[in-house]
Amino acid sequence: MLAVLERGANLDLVRQRAAGPEGARRVEELFTSAERDVVHLVAQGCTNRAIARELYLSVRTVELRLTNVYRKARVRSGFELIRLLAEAGDEQTADAASRPA
């Protein structure tokens, strides 16, 4: 039960960061451009191997970037990340996630 509450609190914290004092700051702005490239491919349903191939990276580099993304967004999986982005109003990534593969 505590883990569920902690995850909910983390989601609220990220939402607060996204809103920020200056208004409509997107959650995605927490990430570097390299991390955003990986996030967009995760949202499209790509595997780590497919992301590595698309971006000309090693699978390990993709894993490291996703680890950083998950840490910054305070989520544990690609599914949670996509849900968070959709809830925070990141329309571009949410749209990509909802399209059939």
From TrEMBL:
Q: What is the protein name stated in its UniProt record?
A: DNA-binding NarL/FixJ family response regulator
CDD domains associated with the record: LuxR_C_like
Q: Which residues form the HTH luxR-type domain?
A: 24-89
Question: Does this entry carry the keyword Transferase?
Answer: no
Alphabetically ordered keywords of this record? DNA-binding, Transcription, Transcription regulation
Q: Which top-rank group of organisms is this from? A: Bacteria
- Write down the PROSITE patterns for this protein, in alphabetical order: HTH_LUXR_1, HTH_LUXR_2
GO molecular-function terms, A-Z: DNA binding
For this protein, the record's InterPro entries field holds:
Sig_transdc_resp-reg_C-effctor, Tscrpt_reg_LuxR_C, WH-like_DNA-bd_sf
Q: Name one GO biological process term.
A: regulation of DNA-templated transcription
